[in-house]
Amino acid sequence: MNKLLLFLTLLLVTKSFSQKRIYYKDIVDDCITNASGDASMLDDVVYNCIKDKYISNYDFTSINGETISTKDIETPIVLLAAATWCAPCWGEIPALNKMVEKYDGKVKFITLFWDLDKGVKRMAEKLDKRIFLVPSKEKMPNKSSLKVAGFIHKLDYPSAYLITDNKRILDFKRGALSPTKSIGWDEVNKVNEEELDSFIKAVIK
């Protein structure tokens, strides 16, 4: 009986070690073809192409010229994708700033922009200074996509990748509210805060 248990344990350990890590960068181009607005299609894309994939090392350079390597970040990461022409990206700012304050020291917030430096600096005035803001070097012709320091994002804005401390993408979310004639800032902030907080909590130990 003991020998059987030992064999099964060794088998499980061997299987777990033999499972190859799948890196997001290796599959993103073929796996994600467009920024579908269909919720069920997005769920399929997230499940098949994003969740449980690993990120490689990326060297991101901020609007201030500071460079950060993802391999050197010891905390979980919230990697956001944004554009200054995106109304929900502006609508999400108050909630995002609150999350940065709440999870200070526990999570690193990095935002990748479709925009070049000049556009990013305009939004930077509203964002918490602890968020690492990374502009694009060139604008992608497809506005729903960006490529920054080798990281490719194809699913529109605002989006967020929730990355564990061992660099596994645990979850992905897209979208946020922005004020309209029927929805004011109070409701917008409440909903955005709840959604972001629920999203981030999953990596807090």
Description:
The protein has 205 residues and is α/β, with parallel strands linked by helices. Helix content is 38%, strand content 19%. The chain has seven helices and nine strands; from the N terminus they run H-H-H-E-E-E-H-H-E-H-E-E-E-E-E-H. It has helices spanning 2-18, 24-31, 39-50, 87-91, 93-102, 117-124, 185-201, and strands spanning 59-61, 67-69, 77-82, 108-113, 132-134, 146-148, 151-153, 159-163, 169-174. The strands form three sheets. It has a five-stranded mixed beta sheet with strand order 5-4-3-8-9, with helices on one face. Helix 6 links the parallel strand 4 and strand 5. Helix 2 packs antiparallel against helix 3 (39-50). The model is unreliable at 3-8 and 10-18 (pLDDT under 50).
Order of strands, widest sheet: 5-4-3-8-9
Label the overall shape.
globular
| Total number of strands | 9
Cα end-to-end separation? 37 Å
How is the main sheet built?
5 strands, mixed
Mean pLDDT: 89
Binned, the helix content reads: 25-40%
**Structural class of the secondary structure composition?**
alpha/beta
Oligomer: single chain
Radius of gyration: 19 Å
Order of helices and strands: HHHEEEHHEHEEEEEH
How would you sum up this structure in a few lines?
The protein is an alpha/beta fold and 205 residues long. The chain has helices spanning 2-18, 24-31, 39-50, 87-91, 93-102, 117-124, 185-201, and strands spanning 59-61, 67-69, 77-82, 108-113, 132-134, 146-148, 151-153, 159-163, 169-174.
